[in-house]
Amino acid sequence: MKIAIVILNWNGKELLEKFLPSVVNHSKEATVWVADNASSDDSVAFVRENYPEVKLVQNSVNGGYAKGYNDALQHIEADLFCLLNSDVEVTQGWLTPIIEAFEKDQHLAVAQPKILDYKNPEFFEYAGAAGGFIDRLGYPFCRGRIFQSLEKDNGQYNDHFGIFWASGACMFVRKEVFVSNGGFDEDYFAHQEEIDFCWKTINRGYQIRYIGSSVVYHVGGATLNAMNPQKTFLNFRNSLFSITKNLPRRKVLPLLIARLLLDGIAAARFLFQLKVRHFAAVFKAHLSFYRNLGKMLKKRDFVNKDIKYYKCTSIVLSYFVYRRKLYKQVVSSDPRSPQ
């Protein structure tokens, strides 16, 4: 199996200096690529001068995560892509269980490793943790991370486990599936495009798994941290995009109405906390969604009416009202949750 590890870079020389060595040293089974998103710093020169074994592809514009990978992967030949953030440190032997899983199961289309916090390595990291799910209303959460609550890694997720979405921070995907899916939706720009991609993949009958015997460490927030209103805007809007594109039509309108109410409550909470820019970001996210609604409806190319897409009824209610901070508490307490 031919593997390409593709690191998307934009003005990230310092991150490449810090994290590229671990990727090169611990990934002998793969070819390492840096896909540069039209950087204005000397990232490309740094790679050329210090890592001649690393291949380069240079995009003409910075189209964000989605377009950046769509453009770059057209030029890379491999059976399996690893889409890796530039702020990830990998570990010795991290590729072996991933390769074995893909070779064993031809229905496996997408996978992710265990993602721990680089700054606090005993804990899971926000972006992906031990694999992603969504609730009935489309709000995402992870094993090991519910909203801002991160679990300590005590080996509770050392398994191989079917998940709904894999983190874009470190996502393995078969090339044939990436191509047949049409890549990432470039209207997302960044954030939650991997959820949309994985939802589409599951709708087409493929499997997505978390491989807990593979471990990486992620800094997180290197592009947009959690306090950036642009991240709030993208997360709220793009979640609505995914609901519209991937759910059966009869379920879309009721969920959008429910989300309008709940997102309004979230916006009011931001306002109460005096986070005025985040309040405005939620409002702008809905305006942007309504402007793009027609376009999103036209992208409903394959919808599976039979899949159980959600892991619990309401992660918002479970977390903020019932104070369930752990994944096992959420799923065990929800009688309508597919176990």
How far apart, in Å, are the first and last alpha carbons?
Answer: 33 Å
Q: And the CATH topology of the largest domain? A: Spore Coat Polysaccharide Biosynthesis Protein SpsA, Chain A
CATH class of the largest domain: Alpha Beta
Our estimate of the beta-strand percent is 15-25%
Main pleated sheet: 9 strands, mixed
Report the total helices: 12
* Secondary structure category: alpha/beta
Shape: globular
- Total count of domains: 2
Helix content: 25-40%
CATH superfamily of the largest domain: Spore Coat Polysaccharide Biosynthesis Protein SpsA, Chain A
Tell me the number of strands.
13
Q: Low-confidence spans: pLDDT under 50, at least 5 residues? A: none
User: In angstroms, what is the radius of gyration?
Assistant: 19 Å
What's the helix-strand series?
EHEHEHEEHEEEEEEEHHEHHHHHH
Task: Give a topology summary.
Blueprint lengths: L2 E7 L3 H13 L5 E7 L5 H8 L4 E5 L4 H10 L6 E5 L3 E3 L4 H10 L3 E10 L14 E3 L5 E3 L2 E2 L2 E2 L9 E3 L7 E5 H6 L12 H11 L3 E12 L10 H18 L2 H24 L3 H16 L1 H6 L16 H7 L5 H6 L7
Parallel strand pairs: 1-2, 1-4, 2-3, 6-13
Antiparallel strand pairs: 4-12, 5-13, 6-12, 7-8, 9-10, 11-13
Helix pairs in contact: 1-2, 6-7, 7-8, 7-9, 8-9
Task: Walk me through what this model shows.
By secondary structure, the protein is an alpha/beta fold. The chain folds into two domains: 3-218, Alpha-Beta Complex (Spore Coat Polysaccharide Biosynthesis Protein SpsA, Chain A), CATH 3.90.550.10; 229-307, no CATH class. 40% of the residues lie in helices and 20% in strands. It contains twelve helices and 13 strands. The protein has helices at 13-25, 43-50, 64-73, 95-104, 175-180, 193-203, 229-246, 249-272, 276-291, 293-298, 315-321, 327-332; strands spanning 3-9, 31-37, 55-59, 80-84, 88-90, 108-117, 132-134, 140-142, 145-146, 149-150, 160-162, 170-174, 207-218. Strands 1, 2, 3, 4, 5, 6, 11, 12 and 13 form a nine-stranded mixed beta sheet that branches. Helix 1 (13-25) links the parallel strand 1 (3-9) and strand 2 (31-37). Helix 7 (229-246) runs antiparallel to helix 8 (249-272). The longest helix is centred in the last third of the chain and has 24 residues, at 249-272. It is globular, with a radius of gyration of 19 Å. The mean pLDDT is 94.
